[in-house]
Amino acid sequence: MSAFEDITIVDLDLKKTTWSRVHSSMRTLYLKLSREPDIEWIRYFNTERESRIMPTRHGMWIEDGYIVFDCLLQNVERYHLPDFRQSIDYANERSHERLAERREERAQRRAEISEEHDTLESLRDMVRRDGESEPVAHSESDELTLDAVVEMPEAPATESLPDVVSEAPPVLPVAEPAANDGDDFDSRRDEWRRRFREAMKPRKEPDGSESQ
Questions:
Q1: Residue ranges of the domains in the chain?
Q2: Which of these, 94, 74, 96, lies nearest to 25 by C-alpha position?
Q3: Are 68 and 61 in contact (CB under 8 A)?
Q4: Which residues have a Cβ under 8 Å from the Cβ of 4 and sit 6 or more positions away?
């Protein structure tokens, strides 16, 4: 940023001089400045001017590089010019200070950015060194799979089953019939026949007739 150039009063523009609307005995004068001030400079100018009270002041404003004011001509050299120059000196001084503050702020900001950049480069170098020195880490699942493969026991050899010897089921002894089993069978058969015949005989009713 270029250095601040002081603003000064360089001329009185007679062509712009007019009758004042404040009073018929007054005039409106245009003091030409060395350059058109910015808004910040005008703010400093007005701040200093408002900090003092002068009874000879009337209307005043700044436009197009001019200080425009209403006055009595006999008061210009004695009151108005010294009054304006004091406010101009304050605005110039404050503008220099503000410019120096901005330069310091930018320099501090550049230093902070440079320091941050150096820190980031150091971190990047550290990360790169760590990445080159450390082996590639396997995930836990990969290690478990690898251990399982290495430690997996071999399947036992198929053992031959003993030959099963087919044995015939044991023969149960058959009880021999008793000597009198034949007689008992004949007796039971005769008894069944007798009962069958009795059952087949017609029954007699009380009146002596036979029922079928």
A1: 9-96
A2: 74
A3: yes
A4: 92, 95, 96, 99
Measure the CA–CA gap between 30 and 16, rounded to whole angstroms: 6
Instruction: Scan for tokens 């990360």, then name that residue.
Output: 127
Structure tokens at 35: 């350059």
For tokens 């039971």, name the residue.
188
Which residue, chain included where needed, has tokens 């009595």?
A: 72
Q: State residue 196 phi and psi, 5-degree precision.
A: -65, -40
Q: Which residues pair with 155 in a beta bridge?
A: none
DSSP class of 189: H
The string of pLDDT tens digits covering residues 73-131 is: 999 999 999 999 999 999 999 999 999 988 888 888 888 888 888 899 888 888 988 87
- Contact predicate 7/33, CB 8 Å: yes
Rg of the chain in Å (alpha carbons): 67
Q: What is the pLDDT of residues 199-210, one digit of tens each?
A: 777 665 555 555
For residue 179, CA distances in Å to 175, 176, 183, 185, 212 come to 12, 9, 9, 12, 44
Pairing of strands 210-211, 203-204: antiparallel
CB neighbours of residue 26 within 10 Å: 18
- Distance, CA of 159 to CA of 174 (rounded, Å): 43
Parallel/antiparallel/unpaired status of strands 66-71 and 60-63: antiparallel
Q: How far apart are CA 138 and CA 172, in angstroms?
A: 73
